[in-house]
UniProtKB/TrEMBL annotation, chain A:
It is found in: Cell inner membrane. Belongs to the CcmD/CycX/HelD family. Keywords: Cell inner membrane, Cell membrane, Cytochrome c-type biogenesis, Membrane, Transmembrane, Transmembrane helix, Transport. It is a single-pass membrane protein. Its main location: membrane. It comes from OM182 bacterium BACL3 MAG-120507-bin80. This is Heme exporter protein D.
From TrEMBL, chain B:
Its main location: membrane. Required for the export of heme to the periplasm for the biogenesis of c-type cytochromes. This is Heme exporter protein C. It comes from the Bacteria. Keywords: Cell inner membrane, Cell membrane, Cytochrome c-type biogenesis, Membrane, Transmembrane, Transmembrane helix, Transport. It is a multi-pass membrane protein. NCBIfam families: ccmC. GO terms for biological process: cytochrome complex assembly.
Length: 104, 248
């Protein structure tokens, strides 16, 4: 095949050696791969943590709104909300873990 | 025209459109960079002077050339931010600065590794191309730290936009440095259709393909980080709140 004949190397070892410049050639291509991988993986990881944090926040906000409604009936808004924020953070945290456990 | 322009600036519109196009962009990036890399490593004939180290230049030239796009890109985005206060433009500019610093660093590193063979030195302070590229690296780091140093995001956006516009001067210096002061870094070899010449078709087609691939990668990385920025800044808006409950 023409394509195979166009390959510049006779053997695997010759390919690795790069005419004696193995270090330089492979260092550059290695750097290139790392450069691409980092700049794709980092934004993907960031997205993951961002979505998790935003969802947690959303759940807490919803809980706070609920608690505020019931607390205002009793007439002790501030204390109850403050207490429940801390409480919800715990509950939401464990609640999410349990949910993740179910789905995965 | 203005309706289209306003739409383009809407983070929601950009987010939804990019969701549709992302898979295709990923495929295109992988195919083009993959082809260019295999071509360069396996099929490129050894240069009569550089031997197999000319393979380094396919990556170096592609990344270096693309790194020059960052300041013009940030300047255009900055101008849009300053004149029309478009939120999306500033989000792109913010993420471009850090990515541009990466591009400049990789340009310097790969150039150094090539120079250590061909010039017999890793670095030369008297070469204008090398020093102006190093300056671009520091300028981009400067834009990144300026952004994080200013508390008020509106002020930070304006300051970064101004610095980006001024920074374009350095791009011109980098571009013409090899012609204005000729020390170590050679000017670009003229593109030739003659096989086996300094910049023959085997070399420049592989390089052109790599340049296209690197631009695709730039867009992909920038779109991914801009999408994060959109979610972060628009987190209180109704559409992001709804998105949270549907998207995984």
């Amino acid at each position: 095949m023409d394509l195979l004949n166009a390959i510049q190397f006779e053997s695997w070892a010759e390919f690795v050696d790069m005419g004696g410049y193995a270090f330089n050639v492979w260092a550059v291509y290695g750097l290139f791969v790392v450069f691409i991988a980092v700049n794709i993986i980092v934004p993907l990881q960031r997205r993951k943590t961002l979505l998790r944090d935003l969802r947690r926040r959303q759940n807490i906000d919803a809980q706070v709104a609920l608690n505020r409604q019931s607390a205002s009936v009793a007439g002790a808004v501030d204390n109850a909300v403050n207490d429940s924020v801390a409480e919800t953070a715990k509950v939401v945290g464990t609640g999410q873990n349990a949910q993740q456990g179910e789905t995965s | 025209m203005w309706v289209w322009f306003a739409k383009l600036g809407s983070p929601k519109w950009f987010y939804e459109l990019s969701t549709k196009w992302l898979p295709w962009l990923v495929v295109a990036t992988v195919v083009v960079i993959g082809t260019a890399t295999v071509w360069a490593l396996l099929f490129l004939p050894p240069d009569y002077q550089q031997g197999y180290t000319s393979r380094i230049l396919v990556v170096h030239v592609a990344v270096a050339g693309t790194s020059l796009a960052f300041f013009p890109l940030m300047a255009v985005a900055g101008t849009i931010t300053l004149v029309w206060k478009m939120k999306l433009a500033d989000m792109v500019a913010k993420n471009a600065a850090a990515l541009g610093a990466w591009f400049s660093f990789i340009t310097l590193a790969t150039g150094s590794i090539w120079g250590s063979v061909s010039w017999g030195t890793w670095w030369e302070w008297s070469d204008s191309r090398l020093v102006s590229m190093l300056f671009q690296f520091f300028l981009l780091l400067g834009v990144v730290s300026l952004r994080s140093a200013l508390e008020e995001s509106d002020k930070a956006a304006k300051a970064c936009a101004l610095l980006s516009i001024v920074g374009c001067i350095n791009v011109v210096v980098i571009k013409y440095s090899v012609e204005w002061w000729n020390t170590l870094h050679q000017p670009a070899s003229p593109v030739s259709i003659e096989s086996g010449s300094a910049n023959g078709p085997e070399f420049w087609i592989a390089t052109a393909l790599m340049i296209l691939g690197v631009y695709l990668f730039l867009s992909l990385s920038l779109i991914l980080s801009t999408r994060n920025e959109i979610l972060m800044r628009e987190r209180r808006s109704l559409w992001v709140q709804e998105l949270m409950s549907t998207e995984k």
